[in-house]
Structure formats: C-alpha cells, structure tokens
TrEMBL record:
Keywords from the UniProt entry: Membrane, Transmembrane, Transmembrane helix
Gene Ontology annotations for the cellular component aspect, listed alphabetically: fungal-type vacuole membrane
Any matching Pfam family: DUF3712
Name recorded for this polypeptide: Uncharacterized protein
Length: 343
C-alpha cells in the first residue's frame, strides 16, 4: 500500500469546524510535510484493520498467501492470536511495539475508530473492527484485545471459500479516524480502500511434503466411542499467528468411495508446528486391500480428504466450516510405516 491509498480530506475538512478561520498556508504546508513523514502511522492502522478482518480466512493457508499479504502491508502479525470463535464473532489479541527510528520528531495520536469492512460485489458490511487509539512518537505500541463482531456471516463465509479455492477476492475497508500531530490542526482521514487478494490452492498445500506428518498411530481394537484408531499429527501452520479452530472433521475417501472420517477434537494452530490429537474411523479392510492390490507405488495409498465441519463449544462456526468444506485434497500415505499396527 502506498500512502496515496489513504486520502486525507480536503483543506477545509482537515481543519474541522474552524474552516471559517482558514489556516495560514504555512500551517497547511507544515501539515502536509508531516503527513509525508507520518504516513506509516495510517499504514499501521490500516494493516491492523485489514489483517485482523481477513485473518480467519488466512488460516486456511497458507504460506504464499500470508507472506505475500504481509509483505504488501508491512504489518507484523507475530504474537497475533485468534481465539474463542463463535458463530458471529471471534476474539483477536495482539500487542506490538514498533520503533521507527530515523530521527523522527514530534508526537501525536490516531483516535480510536470503528473500521467497516465490506464485500466489494454487494457492498455489504460484514465486520466492524474497533481500532483503539494509537499514540506515537518515534514509534508506536499497538495493543488490542477485543471481540470482532461479524454483521454478515455469509459474506465472510463466501470470502473464506474463495480464499481456500484459489480465486481472487477483494474487500473494502472504510474508516474515518482523526490524526492529531502536535502543533497542527486535526486531520480527518477518509480511508476507503479496496484490497484485492489472491486465494490459495489448499489442495497444493496438503500435498506439499512436510505440511503434516502422522507421528504416532494406534489402532483401537475394540473401537472406543466408534473410533478405531487414534494418532497424533503435527501440522505446519503456514501463518505466523495462532488460530484456535476447535473441533474439525474431515471425511476420507478411497477411489471416490467412503473410507471413514477423522476428528481433530481440539485444533489450535500454533505459531509454527502444532501437535494435535486425531481420532478416526476407517474401513481397515479397504485400506489393506488397496495397499496390496492397488496400483500405487508399494504400499502407498491415495486417500481423499474432504473438509466436513468446524465446531467450537458444540456450535457450528460457519465461516470456518465454509473454508474447511472447500478443502478437498489427496494425501499419499505410506501404509508400510504403519504396517505393524494395521496388519
Ligand atoms: C464503535 O461502535 C460501537 C458500537 O456501535 C460504539 O459503542 C463505539 O463508541 C464506537 N467507537 C468509536 C470510536 O466510534
Ligand atoms: C489446485 O491444485 C490442484 C493440484 O495442483 C489442481 O488439480 C486444482 O485444479 C487446483 N485448483 C484450482 C481451483 O486451481
Ligand atoms: C514432517 O517430516 C519431515 C521429514 O522428517 C520434516 O522435514 C517436516 O518438517 C515435518 N513436518 C511437520 C509438520 O512436522
Ligand atoms: C490412543 O488411545 C489409547 C487408548 O485409549 C491411549 O492410550 C493413547 O494415549 C491414545 N493415543 C493418542 C495419540 O492419543
Ligand atoms: C461427510 O460425511 C457425512 C456423513 O457421512 C456426509 O453427510 C457429508 O455429506 C460428507 N461430506 C463431504 C464433504 O463429503
């Protein structure tokens, strides 16, 4: 984003109700000079708004998407956490200090404001992000610990699906914070920015070497609560923030036929690699038959993984579920690795 993406309002608006007593040109020039210096402040504010709003969809993926995104916006998501997802809200938390250095002098603040996030096709508002007041001098500390309320869950679900299936999508952010720099009139900012982003092909991610590993697998014989195996898998979180997702279920298929399902009862993607428990039910005889008779390489079988649902505290989380359901991928599993427990 360049500083021109955020317009400040006209001279008279910039000086608020005191427009009658027009500022001396020198003041306005000083103001503009400061704007040049301080554009990064609204860049930060803008980064916060946008990142936090699209985060629930970024979880689906995804190195390419996330890093491109972050590079574009120069906003560090380290330490960012998304927790307690509910059907129409989730919690976001981050504390981040930025030091600009470079001999900046002066100080000021950006007032607290509500940013409105909309879909670009229907112009429907789907989230309001309350951005706290941001003070700055030669740096700034941004701290938020807040619920993000969703006003149109369907809109976010639609975007989540686009993000997970490699389509392009866009959102529109609007906000009207005031920027106050010491000794200068208050500027009323008018942020109105459409952001286009590329989705990410989740199928490719799942197939990538090392995106997840099965680190232990145990057959349950007799089955426990309907599950005939449990395992631990380690999942690489391709994003630099943590996301609590809850209870995620995938259906499994073999050559298009139903093979069973897996439950990840408590999936929380940590900042790098997360171990999580998996319980599942598979048709063992189908697997063994495929390993012995299939046309795969040795005992390698191709298992279809199809996202089914995501629940938290027993409630469906529609925007996560929509993205999960967009996941349909094949995983190559070498049964020989697990032969001792299967056969
Ligand atoms: C943001 O919206 C909430 C709810 O409508 C309101 O209570 C709050 O005062 C608003 N904050 C700002 C800074 O306008
Ligand atoms: C995603 O990648 C897979 C494998 O490379 C490909 O078969 C599929 O068509 C891609 N999906 C989209 C939506 O481009
Ligand atoms: C999976 O195992 C490979 C090889 O040992 C390793 O390079 C990769 O980092 C592992 N991935 C995860 C998510 O643990
Ligand atoms: C799988 O279940 C067995 C028996 O209930 C238990 O002892 C083991 O710890 C479980 N393994 C994992 C990875 O949860
Ligand atoms: C997953 O399995 C359930 C139960 O068999 C079924 O109702 C659902 O349609 C399946 N979903 C997908 C995406 O295959």
């Amino acid at each position: 984003m360049s500083k021109s993406d955020i317009e400040h309002s006209s001279d008279s608006e910039a000086n608020g109700v005191t427009a009658a007593t027009a500022p001396k040109p020198t003041l306005w020039q000083r103001f503009k000079a400061h704007m040049k210096k301080w554009w990064w402040v609204y860049l930060i504010a803008f980064g916060v708004i946008v990142l936090v709003t699209v985060l629930p969809i970024i979880y689906v993926g995804i190195p390419h998407f996330a890093s491109k995104y972050i590079n574009n916006y120069e906003y560090d998501t380290e330490g960012l956490e998304i927790t307690n997802p509910r059907p129409t809200a989730f919690h976001v938390k981050q504390k981040k200090s930025l030091s600009m250095g470079g001999g900046f002098s002066g100080s000021g603040y950006l007032t607290a404001f509500n940013a409105s996030i909309r879909t670009t096709d229907t112009n429907e508002e789907f989230a309001i992000f309350p951005v706290p007041k941001i003070d700055f001098s030669d740096g700034a500390t941004i701290e938020f610990d807040t619920d993000l309320d969703l006003t149109c869950v369907e809109c976010l679900s639609k975007i989540a699906v686009q993000a997970a299936t490699d389509e392009n999508f866009a959102i529109l952010a609007t906000a009207h914070p005031d920027l106050k720099l010491s000794g200068l009139p208050t500027a009323h900012l008018d942020i109105h920015k459409t952001m286009s982003m590329d989705g990410y092909n989740v199928t490719e991610f799942v197939n990538e070497q090392g995106s997840f590993n099965v680190t232990s697998l145990k057959l349950l014989d007799p089955p426990v609560d309907g599950y005939n195996f449990n395992a631990t898998i380690s999942v690489r979180n391709p994003t630099p923030f943590s996301v609590e997702m809850g209870h995620v279920t995938f259906n499994l298929t073999l050559r298009g036929d139903k093979l069973g399902y897996v439950d990840l009862p408590n999936l929380k993607l940590g900042s790098d690699i997360t171990d999580t428990l998996v319980r599942g039910q598979v048709d063992k005889s189908k697997l063994v038959e495929e390993a012995l008779l299939g046309d795969g390489d040795g005992a390698t079988v191709t298992i279809g993984i199809h996202g089914h649902s995501c629940e938290y505290n027993g409630q469906d989380i529609p925007y996560f579920s929509a993205a999960i359901r967009a996941v349909s991928a094949d995983a190559q599993i070498d049964l020989l690795k697990y032969a001792s427990s299967l056969l």
